[in-house]
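STRUCTURE:
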């Protein structure tokens, strides 16, 4: 009950009826719709794809392509928040987002996301090339329609299949630079695709009650924690050799090969620790989730450093 209503009731009068007043949306609320933390990893992997690809872009076109990828990823996040506003209100992790907290109206969020999505694809096509624009449109559509609308609330494989949406950025970056899709760019896609399940399932292990309240069939809630941990290890074992493929293909040099091997062994160690832990503690899963972000960041940073060093040499 508002202070105004209480005051009217105390005075024995009836509060006048009127439309609920929603706080004015701040620029920071619209920024939050774009999921800036997710966007930062998207942009980073896209830049890696651009630097690894053959070809050259004018700095303005390079910046334009990065901006289009960032805006497209943010638009996907905004539409995702619009669609998921009901379950976001239930989950502790997401309850303070702009839509469930009432700081942005649903129709504003949807219009914001659709306009940004369409604009990013159109500009990418006009300024860069059709291949990059088509991949960007595919990534946005996959995240919105395949993952958010179709998979997320229906199957425990939501993260496995839906992870393809987050794996597109380096391929888009490669296409923006070279105008084509190559085997090398598909390998970059595959690395992120294989990384996504152990990354998100680590989060789901210690947020399983939150997902359960919202009715989202995440792996721990459907198959149980033991099976989730086993599959996390399997995907990690698949990821490590995939992460070394750029070295064996000659895309990057020995610096990447050595350090990526060590990072992969640490990732496997994290997955094994999660698997054998029977204490009921969330600590191993939280540590694996944190390391998984660092792992992917360092992997693509190494690719860029190794490739740049090779070009300079």
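SEQUENCE:
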């Amino acid at each position: 009950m508002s202070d105004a209503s209480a005051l009217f009731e105390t005075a024995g009068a009836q509060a006048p009826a009127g439309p609920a007043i929603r706080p004015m949306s701040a620029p920071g609320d619209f920024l939050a719709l774009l999921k800036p933390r997710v966007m930062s990893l998207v942009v980073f992997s896209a830049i890696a794809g651009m630097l690894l690809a053959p070809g050259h872009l004018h700095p303005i076109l390079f910046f334009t392509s990065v901006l289009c990828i960032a805006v497209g990823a943010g638009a996907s996040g905004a539409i995702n928040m619009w669609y998921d506003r009901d379950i976001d209100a239930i989950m502790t992790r997401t309850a303070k987002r702009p839509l469930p907290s009432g700081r942005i109206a649903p129709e504003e969020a949807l219009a914001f996301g659709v306009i940004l999505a369409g604009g990013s694809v159109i500009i990418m096509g006009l300024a860069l090339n059709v291949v990059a624009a088509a991949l960007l449109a595919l990534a946005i559509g996959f995240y919105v329609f395949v993952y958010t609308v179709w998979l997320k609330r229906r199957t425990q494989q939501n993260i496995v299949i839906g992870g393809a949406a987050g794996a597109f950025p380096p391929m888009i970056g490669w296409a923006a630079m070279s105008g084509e899709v190559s085997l090398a760019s598909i390998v970059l896609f595959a690395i992120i695709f294989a990384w996504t399940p152990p990354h998100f399932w680590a989060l789901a292990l210690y947020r399983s009650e939150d997902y359960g309240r919202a009715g989202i069939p995440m792996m721990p809630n459907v198959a149980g924690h033991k099976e989730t941990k086993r599959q996390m290890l399997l995907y990690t074992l698949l990821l490590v050799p995939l992460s070394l493929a750029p070295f064996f293909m000659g895309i990057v040099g020995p610096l990447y090969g050595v350090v990526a091997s060590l990072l992969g062994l640490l990732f496997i160690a994290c997955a094994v620790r999660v698997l054998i832990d029977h204490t009921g503690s969330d600590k191993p899963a939280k540590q694996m989730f944190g390391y998984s972000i660092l792992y992917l960041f360092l992997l693509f940073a190494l690719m860029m450093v190794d490739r740049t060093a090779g070009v300079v040499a």
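REMARK: Residues 283-312 form the longest helix (30 residues).
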